[in-house]
Amino acid sequence: MGKRPPHMSDIEAARYPPPPPPTFHMPQPRLWFSWLVPLIFLANIAIFVYTMYENDCPAYSNDDSCLFTKYLGRFSFQPFRENPLLGPAIRTLRLLGALEEDLVVKRYEVWRFFSCMFLHAGVVHLLANMFSLLFIGVRLEKEFGFVRIGLLYMISGIGGSLLSILHLQEARSSTVSVGASGALFGLLGAMLSELLTNWSIYANKCAALASLLIIVGLNLAVGFLPHVDNSAHVGGFLAGFFLGFVLLMRPQYGYVNRKYIPPGYDVKRKSKYKCYQYFFLFVSLIILILGFAYGLAKLFVENTAQKYPFLQSYPR
């Protein structure tokens, strides 16, 4: 007969539940090194200096009427009554790539959609935009990288230029439009949509949303001041707002990449993005494509039909 098992105490015979499965967490994302936004900042400064060199106020005006001619020479500013922002003449801005309805629509100088973003009407205009660029752009580039922020900046700027020239066309105005405001408002709009599409990962949601709405409202209110092109602000903001849903999506809270799970563990993982994030992305892409297509068609197709009447359709 077999031997009787030795006596076991109650503690030794107790059945303990299995240990809980280990939890895995994604490592904290590493911040990018911001170099594109400072490069854009330096490019804007350099282009403004070249603009003032090309302007050469003393060569076209009376030396006494130009501002600070004694200290700045050919870099002196236009008379205050002509340009209160301490900058060049309109002729210089037009020469270097300012946005003007006749030159873009009738001469098809579409490169002005891009070049006008790097021109500024004066020192006051330049400093205001560059302060906003460094304050907003550097933080966004550190979080999302230079590729996404570069695309966001450029497309938002072009969106602002498109709405600005449509406004100039409707108003039949011969003025020019310059500045990086459209692109900067695109960054503001993207910050708002980034907050909305990544709502689940924020702690103080309402406070962040309220503060951001106040900042956006104050900046848009500046556009109602005289000689400010608010249409470029609105166009850039809308383009950046919808681009934020496309370019600035973050993984939802609790998502763990498979490469951070050790072999042999079968862990139920969350999907990378939520359903509403995909919905916002899809709708925003459609709105962006239709918006740019409609704006360009309204700008160029209608003008072509007026220039060549035989292209117009007639009822049969």
UniProtKB/TrEMBL annotation:
Enzyme Commission number(s) of this protein: 3.4.21.105
- What's this protein's name? RHOMBOID-like protein
Q: What class of enzyme is it?
A: hydrolase
Bilayer-crossing regions? 31-53, 110-138, 150-168, 174-195, 207-225, 231-249, 278-297
Please tell me the species this chain comes from: Phaseolus vulgaris (Kidney bean)
What do the Gene Ontology cellular component annotations say?
A: Golgi apparatus; membrane
The record's annotation in PANTHER family points to: RHOMBOID-LIKE PROTEIN 5 (PTHR22936:SF87), RHOMBOID-RELATED (PTHR22936)
Name the InterPro entries for this protein. Peptidase_S54_rhomboid-like, Peptidase_S54_rhomboid_dom, Rhomboid-like_sf
Q: Which keywords does the record carry?
A: Hydrolase, Membrane, Protease, Serine protease, Transmembrane, Transmembrane helix
Q: Which reaction does it catalyse?
A: Cleaves type-1 transmembrane domains using a catalytic dyad composed of serine and histidine that are contributed by different transmembrane domains
Q: Which GO terms describe its biological process?
A: proteolysis
What does the UniProt record say this protein does? Serine protease involved in intramembrane proteolysis.
Q: Which domain of life is it from?
A: Eukaryota
Q: How does it sit in the membrane?
A: Multi-pass membrane protein
Q: Where is the Peptidase S54 rhomboid domain?
A: 109-249
Q: Where is the protein situated, by its record's location annotation?
A: Membrane
- Pfam families of this UniProt entry? Rhomboid
Q: Which family does it belong to?
A: Belongs to the peptidase S54 family.
Molecular function (GO) terms listed?
A: serine-type endopeptidase activity
